Amino acid sequence: VRLVERFAFQRLGLYQAALLRIGLSSIMLTQYFWHAGVRQMLWGPYGQLDYSEYLRHSYYFFDIYRYSAAPQYVDIIYWGSAIIAAMLLLGVFPRVTSVAFAITTYSLFARNTLSTDAGQTLLVLLSFLLCFLDSGRVLTVFTTRAVRRVPAPLRFLRNIVHNAALFGVAWQVCMVYAWAAFYKLGGSTWRDGTALHYVANSTHFEVFREVPRFLGLHPGLTALFTYGTVVFQSAFPFLMWNERLKTWLIAMAICLHMGIAVTMGLISFSATMIVADVSLLSDRVFRQLVDFFASAFRRIENIPGIFQGESTRNAS
Amino acid sequence: VQRALSFYSGPQVSQSWSLFAPDPPDYDLRVLIQGRTRTQRLTSWYNVTDYFLQTAAGNRLTPTRALSEALFHSTTVIKERTLSQWDVAMDETVRTSTMVIERYVPKSQLSAIRIAIYSSPIGYPAATAPSALTLVKQTGWRPVPVVTLTW
Predict the structure, then answer these.
(1) Which residue is closest to A208 within chain B, CA to CA?
(2) Could you say which residues from 36 to 65 on chain A have a Cβ atom under 8 Å away from some Cβ of chain B?
């Protein structure tokens, strides 16, 4: 009963929702600027995927790149999408911009599916869930206006939709880990502890030549990381519902994905996974983090010569 | 309704999270491209994959990484004979390879191109590799597709 009450009367995880909004929009904004120079090659009508070939695999009306074969149209949609991502990042009309963000993000990656990785697929799925979250209540540049009084049934409905979407995010992240582990268990190299040897030696994922060399000299470490990955991914969906273990699991997931970003160069994949992982932190941990940063900020404020010095100079 | 429901299992947002599973590939794929000029002269074979790898080695944050990501996935589809994506993968491989050869040979001089995909086993030093290169697929001569070059 208490759980149902909380689900209907309270919007849970407002910081988590805001962090998801900021994280996903920052990743997309970075993508838009990062790939600006090759946008026509990746997503243009004369790019990697021919427009007519793309149309054969485009099914949905909200796939907005399908409506014109003109390169200028792609430019307008591309930079318009970047503006939407920036607005969402700042928290400008988040209810509206989150829907536009989901559509533009989906459309971009659907334009050239073979250039995407699992991280971008997850980003699309999370951005659709973001539409149902109340993500603009905290951590926005613009202060929220006074809350209008809404009838109780509508308020309950809104709370339920928000909380269900928040649960959907957690469920989706668990699905990623669960299926990744499930598929791996069917692979002989994950069972004999050599899978990371092949990943590290693949030229496509090579960032530092020293990594495969080092792992080649230490086969025990290769086996440890291989089994460690499978054990971690198998355990995550079950243990993350435990309040105490969750924080540690998320810390481990962040370390794992930072390692993947640095050693394999899968930056956007790792960033998406880190944002998704962080959005699973509990309210208590978020409050502690907010308090920690607030007190750290106050401490910096009190250091003579930083903010005090400024005010003294201004006063004099 | 069926379309809406199929969204979650469609190719764009497929829920099969097979991250290096069931096994990571135990081969490296190399794409080579050769052009034929209007005067029927054959160009040399250009290594498309190495071009992207060298670009990435020079600049770890190069945006062409996304182009090579598509080439990597396309050639893997061709190697693994994933029929549902075969046409798109061939199209992307040919078009991406054309982008690279056009950096060496101006488009106006070429009348046709053909590509070859080779695989080599991962993890063996060159001297002990069971077989250096295996031909996965070689296309016939194709007219040069129109591609955008901006980088």
Answers:
(1) B57
(2) 36-42, 44, 46-50, 53, 57, 59-60
**For residues A195 and A225, what is the distance between their CA atoms, to the nearest angstrom?**
9
pLDDT of residue B48: 96
d(CA A311, CA B89): 62
The strand pairing partners of B138, in sequence order, are: B116
State whether residue A112 sits within 8 Å of chain B by CB: yes
Which pLDDT tens digit goes with each residue over A283-309? 888 888 888 888 888 877 776 655 544
Q: Cα separation of B142 and B94, whole Å?
A: 9
What is the residue whose two structure tokens read 């899968």?
A266
More confident residue, A112 or B82: A112
Q: Which residues of A touch B122 (CB under 8 A)?
A: 198, 201-202
Q: Specify whether the CB–CB gap between B49 and B97 falls below 8 A.
A: no
Say how far apart CA A198 and CA B69 lie, in whole Å.
Answer: 18
Cβ neighbours, 10 Å, residue A6: 13
